[in-house]
Amino acid sequence: MMKKPLIQLKNINKFFSVGKKQQLQVLKSLDLTIYEGEFIMIMGKSGSGKTTLMNIIGFLDRVSDGEYLFNGEDVSKLSENEKSEFRNKYLGFIFQQFFLINSLNVSQNVQLPCTYGGTKNKQTKQRIANNYLSLVDLADKGKAKVTELSGGQQQRVAIARSLVNDPLLIMADEPTGALDSQTGKEIMEMLQKLNHEGKTIVMVTHDADMTKYATRVIHMKDGCFTEEEGNQ
Ligand SMILES: Nc1ncnc2c1ncn2[C@@H]1O[C@H](COP(=O)(O)OP(=O)(O)O)[C@@H](O)[C@H]1O
Ligand SMILES: [Mg+2]
């Protein structure tokens, strides 16, 4: 079966201005196609351009030149509002530091993307949140305070939150970076399970132990892709 391309980056470059006249090239002629159902891992040392690339894929930053198609749509033709809408509707985000809101309970945190997405009905939001909390084995924690949870539990809340709008793509930036190795393993197994159930995932890491969970690993150095390995 032909897989559908979800992300198509064609010969993209990214420059940042540093000082008055200098331009720093951070991404160099990158070509990348991410197909539905892949679990892509982007590996590289600090400063290699991983976050810049993730910001572009996540519509937070734009390419300097080259083409970015998301699900067939030319991203350069989208307005800022359309990009925010795409972000909320089609992408789920997981971060190293979880970024949960401590003043909200667990269920309210999971409901946040539904709220932004226009689902206003309280019962509907609670039902959706409960559903995803069960999926990450936290069905009984909906009313708990975020600060009562362990790091691993907090990251599972963040995973539930990332899933709540049933996004086309999950983006994870060092999701195990703040966790001990056993908890990190549990989080990776959860992401792998989601991938096996069909979710497309792109994750950034500098930890070579993580690559076994990916279907494809892309190595980055100084703004270039240096090698690629497939696991399946
Ligand atoms: N807004 C910016 N302005 C200037 N330089 C930047 C900016 N963002 C990132 N850089 C530079 O781009 C390079 C790649 O950064 P980054 O994408 O954060 O790498 P990584 O996530 O792999 O550590 C670094 O040299 C960094 O200093
Ligand atoms: Mg980074």
C-alpha Rg (nearest Å): 18 Å
Structural class label: alpha/beta
Give the fraction of residues assigned to helices.
Answer: 25-40%
Number of strands: 10
Shape: globular
What labels describe this entry?
alpha/beta; globular; binds adenosine-5'-diphosphate; binds magnesium ion; Rossmann fold; single chain; 6 helices; 10 strands; 232 residues; 6-stranded mixed beta sheet
Give me the secondary-structure topology.
Elements: E1 5-18, E2 22-35, E3 39-44, H1 50-57, E4 65-70, E5 73-74, H2 80-90, E6 91-95, H3 106-116, H4 122-135, H5 151-163, E7 169-173, H6 181-196, E8 200-205, E9 216-221, E10 224-230
Parallel strand pairs: 3-8, 3-9, 6-7, 7-8
Antiparallel strand pairs: 1-2, 1-4, 4-5, 9-10
Helix pairs in contact: 3-4, 3-5, 4-5, 5-6
Bound molecules: adenosine-5'-diphosphate (ADP) and magnesium ion.
Residues 16, 18, 24, 26, 44, 46-52 line the site of adenosine-5'-diphosphate (ADP).
